[in-house]
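Structure representation.

___
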Amino acid sequence: MQTKLTLRMEDELIRLAKSVSEKKGKSLSKMVADYFRVLTKKELFDNIELPPNVKSLYGALADSNIDEKDYKKYLEGKYL
């Protein structure tokens, strides 16, 4: 079931959000719903205690410039 939600925010923010939604081909309602889904999932995971070995790795690659091409290159070098 869907329910209407009224939000109040700055005119400029609304204008920018509508512009982004047009570029993405999504409705503003869909973008807000997606954002709320991400927030609620993050809240769920914030309450989970990670094992020490995983916790030590968490965020290790956040500032890296590694992408999928680098990973493929690594795998080709390792297995081919």
Residues 28-46 form the longest helix (19 residues). Helices lie at 11-24, 28-46, 52-57, 68-79. Residues 31 and 37 are 10 Å apart (CA to CA). The chain has four helices and no strands.
